[in-house]
Design goal:
The structure holds 3 protein chains of 3 kinds. By secondary structure, chain A is an alpha/beta fold. In chain A, the strands form 3 sheets. Chain A has a 6-stranded mixed beta sheet with strand order 6-7-8-3-9-10, sandwiched between helices. In chain A, strands 2-1-4-5 form a 4-stranded antiparallel beta sheet. Chain A has a 4-stranded antiparallel beta sheet with strand order 12-13-11-14, with helices on both faces. Chain A is elongated. The N terminus of chain A is likely disordered. Chain C is built from 11 helices and 24 strands. In chain C, the strands form 7 sheets. Chain C has a 5-stranded antiparallel beta sheet with strand order 7-19-20-21-22. A 4-stranded antiparallel beta sheet of chain C has the order 1-2-3-4. Chain C has a 4-stranded antiparallel beta sheet with strand order 11-12-13-14, sandwiched between helices. The chains are: A alpha/beta, B mainly alpha, C alpha+beta.
Chain lengths: ~300, ~230, ~425
């Protein structure tokens, strides 16, 4: 128990044996997630894999069926005000108090955070081409994202939870957001937990990756480890009816006619050996370079 | 001692509710002015003593302030809807619950602001009504009339507390059930067509119901942030 | 814990709402009571006895018809035609129209006009009615000139009598001082506890007001050509007065109820006659009068007693009619099983709960409580949870209302109950 507690001290977020159902439908069972201090973790998964459920449990908006989620050692269902002050939260869609303008919203939030950094907020806001009394509801998605970012920077939280931060943003704003966030997180040693559907953006931002599939975690490791170890090999076979998915070496196999894509944690020799042992003639055997998105699709499969 | 950030919380709530509040306040004020303009007109036409005797002793009773019946309720509806409905629909309530304070205290702060606003409007209505009523009529009429108005003013608190509960409730069918309950509870308060000073004996229980209803929002808000359906 | 307590409050609100509206809806749709006969009673000056008329409904429930039968206390029947000739004073118009009205009744020469002029009817209550303490004192001579028409209302406060000019809502200090001095001179102790006057404008002008001062003494206050007239009156048997009604007949100045439940007639000479009425009866009812008699009809639970007095208020006769309670139909009986109580509100008594007979609703309540217990156990709730016990108690006491309340606000299972439950929480 002591060893576990010592280990827990280094984790900002800890989900222990998390289990949740919606009615009778299992979302996941005995999910374990750890996010170390100073790391940027990206949560990936297909639609319905349980990402939003996890975010909601983390924010205390959902009580899991069993298991617990800890942030700075406190159960997320009963976070103390001091811990809440250390968490910055971006809601999916950059939801903000849209009836306020940029000054009003700053004035509102500043009362809750003793270390509020007004300059950090206005440095970003002044870059926006808006009138001083323009309501947030009349701003574009990108402008709202910038306001949200400014508020987070001003709050200066130790942990940031960003739910689908890139939703609705054009490439310019996405790049702005990512660059600011990464620079800020690394400079200030912040911990970030984020989700997004745009994996290219996540690839620029995150240190660690957590990939969920229905009911389970597929990968939880540093991004570099994952992209290094997870490989795609393509080859052509004489027949298109050969089943390779069941082999332990294969994580996923996709094929279009006789053109095969073989996803594995193994190396080239192991894959070649597999084919030869099965007596399968192959040609044009190549290892394909993969982006994180390619790796994600390869891991979870196309629909 | 109230924490400083409550002022900021109230600031946000004021920004949300100010137009709805001011709009209904204007309507309420106009209604009260209209009531007394109409009474003064009748006095000019018929004579003050005749009007006063008719108000006091006619059967069925002359409820010259009947148009005020729904004003407190409308004020509560306006404040409650402006405060809670967009916040829940647009998911901004999650931002509020994420603020660095216990959820129950944050929700209580929101509800407290609404109740303070409601009390201010009711006090204004009472003040305006008393000002004109005392000018025109003796206290033997003013006191019973104020007793008759009290259930209507109390109905605003019941309405507000139920609106808060209904808005925060995550399950739409339960919202319907709560609305039905609220409707029939409000019927007990929106009483009229009785001589002035009627329902005095009901006031203690009505007040108790108002006090007990003030916590209802915490029930459905906890269901909301536990993600219960 | 706080949320669970608030849930209990929410359940109680649901119970109140259900208890207010469900019985109303049910009994509007299914009226609870059947028909019973109507009875009426009159005193025959010819017979010197009572005649009872009863409207009996047809036994065929589809027919809304019936017939009227008339009989005396001894059971002897009379036809409608013969009853008219026995109740001459109650059928003046009909008999006069038919030309059958006699020239004498009981040896006294009569005309329809004379009989009609002697007839009156009024209601008297043992309890005082609505009272605001602000009244109009009319001048006894106001009929002569409009200048004596008062434009004020008066009240009697601890400081004295105040006349408020309605047009300005200000006190007429001079008039108030004049009347205050007059009342003080008559040993009136301010403020007034209560005031009464006749609803008849002429009588009100003539008599003015009967006023009770703070020492429970009775005064008569009137005004004659703007001059106050105050007279201290004797109280009947020196008893404190609860209520006064002014008479409509010249021989009755007022009817008074005293705090010990007695009823008195005050005559025009301000003497009193105590009416011989049983102490047990509540003295609220109708007073009718004719050429010969003064008749009090005092209702009570399922009965009505009629007292006949002569014009000197000596008791001549009395008769009690007993009414069959209206029979309950199936809907009414079923309603008593279904609804333990009904919550209502009256203007002057506030909220009330009208309970059905316990032996009727208790069975359904216990059955519903048993079903609740079975449901809770089956769905993994533990009886060691005090809020589960509370739910069962709600259903036991409030019956169908309690069941609706706990269903509208279902009890959330504890984490142990969820984990131990057979099926996941729905």
């Amino acid at each position: 128990m002591l060893i576990i507690q010592i280990m827990e001290l280094n984790y900002v977020i800890q989900c222990i044996n998390l289990t949740h159902y919606y009615g009778k439908k299992l979302v996941y069972e005995n999910l374990n997630i750890n996010v170390a201090e100073g790391r940027i973790l990206g949560l990936l998964g297909k639609n319905g894999a349980g990402k939003s459920t996890t975010i909601n449990i983390l924010n205390g908006f959902l009580e899991p069926r069993s298991g617990q989620c800890l942030i700075y050692g406190e159960n997320t269902q009963h976070l103390s005000p001091a811990t809440k002050r250390r968490i910055g939260y971006l809601i999916e869609g950059h939801v903000q108090y849209s009836f306020m303008n940029v000054r009003q919203i700053e004035k509102f939030y500043s009362g809750f955070y003793p270390n509020w950094k007004r300059d950090a907020y206005f440095n970003l806001i002044n870059k926006l081409k808006i009138t001083p009394h323009q309501k947030i509801s009349t701003m574009s998605c990108g402008q709202r994202a910038q306001v949200a970012l400014g508020l987070i920077l001003a709050q200066d939280p130790d942990l940031l939870i960003l739910d689908d931060f890139s939703l609705g943003l054009d490439p310019g704003y996405r790049r702005l957001f990512i660059d600011y966030m990464r620079e800020y997180a690394k400079a200030e040693k912040k911990t970030v937990f984020l989700t997004s559907h745009i994996i290219q953006d996540m690839e620029r931002l995150i240190d660690d990756i957590l990939i969920m599939d229905y009911n389970r975690v597929l990968v939880q490791s540093p991004v570099r480890d994952f992209t290094t170890r997870f490989k795609e090999f393509t080859f052509e076979l004489d027949r298109d009816d050969i089943e390779l998915k069941d082999h332990p070496l294969a994580v996923n196999v996709e094929h279009l006619r006789n053109h095969y894509e073989f996803y594995t944690y193994g190396n080239e020799n192991e894959v070649r050996q597999l084919l030869e042992n099965l007596g399968i003639a192959y040609r044009n055997f190549k290892e394909q370079p993969m982006t994180l998105e390619d790796a994600f699709i390869g891991l979870t499969g196309k629909y | 001692m109230m924490k400083r950030y409550f002022l900021h919380l109230f600031y946000k709530e004021w920004l949300k509710t100010r137009w709805a509040f001011l709009g209904t306040l204007l309507l309420g004020t106009a209604t009260i002015l209209y009531i007394f303009i109409a009474v003064e007109n009748k006095i000019t036409l018929t004579g003050a003593k005749t009007i006063l005797l008719r108000i006091l002793y006619d059967e069925p009773p002359v409820i010259y302030y009947a148009s005020f019946l729904y004003i407190p309720l409308l004020t509560a509806l306006a404040i409650g809807i402006a405060q809670y409905v967009p916040e829940v629909i647009q998911k901004r309530i999650r931002l509020t619950l994420h603020l660095p304070e216990k959820n129950n205290i944050l929700i209580s702060g929101m509800a407290g602001f609404g109740l303070i606003l409601l009390t201010l409007s009711n006090l204004l209505y009472i003040g305006l009504f008393l000002y004109y009523n005392i000018r025109l009529f003796p206290e033997e009429l003013t006191k019973p009339v104020m007793i008759s108005l009290t259930p209507w003013l109390l109905s605003s608190y019941i309405a507000y507390n139920f609106i808060a509960m209904i808005a925060m409730e995550p399950n739409k069918w339960r919202k319907v059930i709560y609305s039905v309950i609220a409707y029939y509870i409000l019927q007990l308060f929106l009483v009229g067509n009785e001589p002035h000073g009627a329902f005095r004996e009901s006031l203690p229980i009505m007040t108790l119901m108002v006090l007990l209803s003030s916590g209802l929002v915490l029930y459905s808000s906890q269901r909301f942030y536990k993600g219960e359906k | 814990m706080l949320t669970k307590i608030i849930r209990i409050i929410a359940v109680l609100f649901a119970v109140i709402a259900a208890a207010t509206v469900l019985p109303q809806l049910y009994y509007t749709t299914f009226p609870p009571e059947g028909r019973s006969s109507h009875k009426n009673i009159c005193y025959s000056e010819i017979l010197g006895d009572f005649i009872i008329s009863e409207y009996i409904y047809s036994t065929d429930k589809k027919q809304a018809t019936g017939q009227t039968v008339c009989y005396d206390r001894h059971g002897k029947s009379y036809s409608r035609d013969s009853v008219a000739r026995l109740l001459l004073l109650d059928n003046v118009s009909q008999l006069a129209y038919e030309g059958r009205f006699p020239d004498t009744i009981c040896g006294i020469a009569v005309t329809p006009e004379l009989v009609s002029s002697e007839a009156f009817s009024q209601y008297h209550s043992a309890q005082p009615g609505l009272y605001y303490g602000l009244c109009e004192l009319r001048d006894q001579k106001s009929y002569t000139t409009r200048t004596l028409e008062p434009r004020d209302l008066f009240r009697i406060t601890p400081e004295g009598i105040q006349f408020i000019v309605c047009a300005t809502n200000q006190i007429d200090e001079e008039k108030s001082r004049l009347f205050t001095n007059c009342l003080t001179a008559a040993d009136f102790r301010f403020p007034a506890l209560r005031m009464w006057t006749s609803p008849d404008k002429n009588i009100s002008e003539a008599i003015g007001y009967y006023v009770i001062d703070s020492k429970n003494e009775l005064y008569c206050l009137s005004m004659n050509q703007s001059v106050p007239a105050v007279q201290k009156l004797e109280k009947p048997d020196s008893r404190n007065i609860r209520n006064i009604t002014f008479g409509k007949s010249p021989d009755i100045r007022a009817i008074l109820n005293t705090e010990n439940g007695n009823m008195y007639i005050q005559h025009p000479d301000q003497s009193y006659t105590r009416l011989e009425l049983p102490d047990s009866l509540r003295k609220s009812g109708r007073l009718t009068g004719n050429l010969f008699y003064r008749i009090f009809t005092l209702p009570a639970q399922n009965q009505q007693t009629t007292f006949v007095f002569d014009r000197n208020f000596r008791l001549v006769d009395s008769c009690t009619l007993y009414f069959q309670p209206q029979p309950q139909n199936t809907a009414g009986i079923f309603g008593e099983f279904l609804f333990p109580f009904h919550i209502g509100q009256t203007a002057w008594e506030g909220f009330y709960a009208d309970w059905s007979p316990v032996k009727r609703f208790l069975w359904l309540n216990l059955a519903l409580a048993g079903i609740t217990l079975f449901y809770k156990r089956r769905n993994g709730y533990r009886l060691s949870n005090p809020f589960v016990i509370t739910d069962i108690l709600f259903v036991t006491i409030f019956g169908i209302y309690g069941l609706m309340g706990i269903s509208a606000f279902p009890l959330k299972k504890s984490r142990e109950e969820i984990l131990n439950s057979q099926s996941p929480e729905l």
